[in-house]
Design brief:
The complex is a heterotrimer.
Chain A: E1 5-13, E2 15-16, E3 19-20, E4 25-30, E5 34-38, H1 45-52, E6 60-65, E7 68-69, H2 74-79, E8 81-84, H3 96-103, H4 110-119, H5 135-143, H6 145-148, E9 153-157, H7 165-180, E10 184-188, E11 199-202
Parallel strand pairs in A: 5-10, 5-11, 8-9, 9-10
Antiparallel strand pairs in A: 1-4, 1-6, 2-3, 6-7
Chain B: H1 9-22, H2 24-44, H3 49-72, H4 77-82, H5 84-89, H6 96-124, H7 132-156, H8 164-190, H9 195-225
Helix pairs in contact in B: 1-6, 2-3, 2-6, 3-6, 3-7, 3-8, 6-7, 6-9, 7-8, 7-9, 8-9
Chain C: H1 2-48, H2 62-89, H3 92-124, H4 132-150, H5 157-185, H6 204-236, H7 241-253
Classes of the chains: A alpha/beta, B mainly alpha, C mainly alpha.
């Protein structure tokens, strides 16, 4: 099956206080591919993700999803992406399974939720309100989304940060399954990955030529 | 086919109602405040039934305004802290729907109990019985407007919270609601037509439902990206 | 690529610079016009206009009170519209005009309130009467103060501008609602002596100097707005080369 072009970025740029943050970004992503965004701290990786999930407006450049400009297929684009950033979006007053249920597509069966919580090691906390859980456990609830989501394009901003080997293995496993099913991933990480074969894209801070 | 237009309203309404019920202390505090400050009035002014009943329409409404103001400040702050605001803003919903869902939940949890509690204050202030139903109607509709306008202030002051700025921004916008709200009760007491100011309150609600979510949307995005 | 980026950057900066240079030329004669209008209006109104039948000479304060109120209200719309233009078309100069309009409008509202109180004492026996006009003016003052206070909530001036613009728009929608509701609530104030659709019910000998003062106040508003905006431009564009050039020129002159 020919790989379909999922994402095409053309000269995407963002400016703050009249200065470009990074060199304009261009890359393409096909189904079944993963892209590793590299860059030094402060180069603008998080901002790039914010641009990709349409939280920020770029000052120039184009974002094409499945060949169409995102401005024309706004809802279709947003319903087909998953974003996990630095924050876990877990509500303290809800239980782990309520939180995961909320973050999963409508109509996800409770068995699937339970199975997802089990794979992150939280099966005993399924009905525990999350104010009793640690920040690390909140992260795991958020990462359990990788098992229940139906999105085809994943944006993961430093998913491996502060995880132990088990956690890293879990995410890499999810990512590999997703890629095998034809999904695509854009992720950033300081870690070297063992299992995932991903192209690299280096984000460079914008330097004015004086 | 995913229904983008209405999706999000029920989901966020349900979630925020659940959160409101789970956080019982946050639910009860504005109500206790409402009762407490109302009890201050006879102590500070006069316990005579006649004087209190003269003050009743305005006092009840002022304290409803204050109680709502206190409760609306933290409407979005938890969402900003834990990252669910980001997820809400990037969700494939017409953004006014989740926002209206949240505010409706806020009204059910704050404004509605306030309305149901108001007859107690009415009794405290010797409000004539004919005015009780109009009072409750005015509070039911009026607190919804207060929640909407208050949410605009909450969204705009999200980066730096600390009650006074929210009050400063939102009070001038609350004044028409206050005027017509207390007018409903006063007209009922005087035996005049109280449905006229009530209709105006309803019109204010219609305008607020139409316009506030736009301002809130803009303010939330600003707080997240600014 | 670098050249393109610099060109757009310069383009957007060109707008405030253009304003700064144009106002440099307009200000002298505009200030002269303002001064002459205000002096004419004041002298005419305070000294030469006939005495009022009921209020005697105390009515003369309206030659300051009414223009201040009119321009204070118009100024809010000016500020809100400048904010809207900034929001929709992302024009920085528009935001700067909005920023400058806020304190000027607030000051004018304050003047209107104080002169209203001065007028109130001999006319109604009290410095403050809760009538429709004064109460609406007070609420307008709070609206202005809110827009000014919001500035410090945001660390970036871009975000602060957008927030103030949003608040300005919300206030703008509310101003007619507030005015109408306060009006409905209480009417002690004199019925409007200047209607824009009908003939004024004031005697022309009293009305003419008032008209001069109103136009004079508008001109005064324009002058102050330009001055404040010029200062705001310098404040914000201090990194731009043309501003640095200005500073070196000024210091060289000395």
């Amino acid at each position: 099956m020919a790989a379909a072009n999922i994402l095409k970025i053309k000269s995407l740029a963002f400016e703050r206080n009249d200065a470009l943050l990074f060199e304009p970004v261009s890359f393409e992503l096909n189904s079944g591919e993963a892209l590793h965004v590299e860059g030094a701290n402060g180069a603008g990786k998080t901002t790039l993700f914010q641009l990709l999930i349409k939280m920020l407006e770029p000052c120039s450049g184009e974002l094409l999803f499945r060949g169409q400009p995102v401005s024309e297929c706004h809802f279709e684009y947003l319903s087909d992406i998953l974003f996990i950033g630095h924050q876990s979006a877990v509500k303290a007053a809800l239980t782990a399974s309520e939180n995961l249920s909320w973050m999963s597509p409508q109509g996800t069966s409770s068995e699937k939720i339970a199975a997802a919580l089990q794979s992150v090691g939280l099966e005993h906390y399924a009905n525990v309100p999350c104010y009793r859980l640690s920040a690390g456990q909140h992260r795991r609830v958020a990462l359990a989304r990788l098992m229940t989501t139906s999105a085809s394009l994943w944006y993961l901003d430093e998913p491996f940060a502060a995880l132990d080997k088990q956690g890293v293995d879990f995410i890499e496993g999810c990512m590999q399954n997703h890629l095998n099913r034809g999904g695509s991933i854009v992720f950033s990480s300081h870690q070297d990955l063992v299992k995932i074969a991903a192209r690299s894209y280096r984000l460079n801070p914008f330097r004015e030529v004086v | 086919m995913y229904n983008y237009l209405s999706a999000g309203f029920m989901a966020y309404l349900r979630r925020d109602l659940l959160l409101g019920i789970r956080n019982k202390s946050d639910l009860v505090k504005p109500l206790i405040f409402f009762l407490l400050v109302s009890a201050l009035v006879p102590l500070a002014i006069a316990p005579e039934a006649e004087r209190l009943s003269q003050l009743a329409p305005g006092i009840i409404w002022i304290f409803a305004v204050l109680a709502t103001l206190l409760s609306v400040e933290r409407l979005f702050s938890d969402d900003l802290q834990d990252g669910s605001l980001e997820q809400m803003l990037m969700s494939p919903n017409l953004l006014i729907m989740p926002i209206l869902g949240k505010i409706t939940a806020h009204w059910v949890v704050i404004g509605l109990p306030l309305t149901l509690l108001s007859p107690v204050i009415g009794v405290w202030f010797s409000l004539p019985t004919i005015a009780v139903m109009p009072m409750m109607l005015s509070l039911a509709i009026g607190t919804a407007v207060l929640s909407l306008i208050g949410a605009v202030g909450a969204a705009l002051t999200l980066p730096r919270q600390g009650g006074v700025l929210l009050a400063l921004l939102v009070m001038p916008l609350y004044m028409p609601v206050l005027i017509f709200g207390s007018a409903v009760i006063q007209s009922a007491v005087d035996g005049l037509d109280w449905t006229a100011p009530l209709a105006i309150l309803a019109a204010l609600l219609a305008i607020a439902v139409a316009l506030c979510p736009l301002a809130i949307n803009a303010g939330l995005r600003l707080a997240k990206n600014g | 690529m670098n050249l393109n980026v610099k060109w757009t950057w310069f383009h957007r900066l060109g707008s405030p610079r253009w304003f700064y240079q144009k106002t440099q030329r307009w200000l002298p004669w505009l200030s002269l016009l303002t001064l002459s209008l205000l002096i004419t209006g004041l002298v005419w109104g305070l000294a030469f206009a006939p005495e009022d039948a009921k209020q005697g000479n105390s009515f003369r304060i309206i030659y300051v009170h009414v223009p201040a109120s009119v321009v204070a209200l118009a100024g809010y719309y000016m500020m809100a519209i400048a904010g809207a233009v900034g929001l929709i078309w992302r024009i920085k100069l528009s935001y700067m005009l909005m920023r400058s309009a806020a304190p000027i409008g607030a000051a004018l509202t304050f003047i209107a309130l104080v002169t209203g109180a001065i007028w109130g004492k001999p006319t109604w026996g009290a410095y403050w009467v809760w009538d429709a006009r004064i109460t609406s003016m007070l609420i307008l003052l709070f609206l202005y103060l809110g827009v000014m206070a919001l500035r410090h909530t945001y660390s970036s001036s871009e975000a602060a501008d957008k927030a103030s613009a949003i608040l300005g728009l919300v206030g703008m929608v509310n101003v007619p609602i507030i005015y109408k509701s306060v009006d409905w609530w209480q009417t002690l104030h004199q019925p409007a002596t200047i209607k824009f659709t009908g003939a004024p019910s004031m005697h022309p000998d009293m009305f003419m100097p008032l008209l001069v003062m109103i136009i004079g106040f508008y001109a005064f508003y324009a002058v102050t707005l330009m001055l404040f905006t010029r200062a705001e431009i310098l404040r914000r564009e201090y990194r731009a080369s043309w501003v640095k050039q200005l500073v070196t020129n000024k210091t060289a002159e000395k």
